[in-house]
Give the backbone structure.
Amino acid sequence: PSHDTRFYYIEHPELKILIDQGASAHLDKLKFLTTSVDVLIQGIANREHDEAITQGYLLNLKPRLFIPTHIDNFFAAFNPQADITYLPGIKWEEFLKNFEQSKPSAKLIKPKYGERIVLTP
């Protein structure tokens, strides 16, 4: 199977943002860019990589804000009236339990389809 790197690192004078939608952890490939981020927007579609997220990304990059996503959300046509599943195929309660057990310092925001998220420094 392919383990392509699907991440974007955005550096702004007030915020460092990582968007990672890859199928597996890419911390080793990110080291040359940064060792910390303010905001982590992370794909959580692949259930076998929960530990890479909670014990890897969250503990190593220490984001203040964590926003879980699913790569399919980036390819769906925008329709605020649509009745779509936010995280298709995700066992949300299981992921949330793993997240809370890892005791990250990050605040978790589960975005709502079509609603704005405001990032502040």
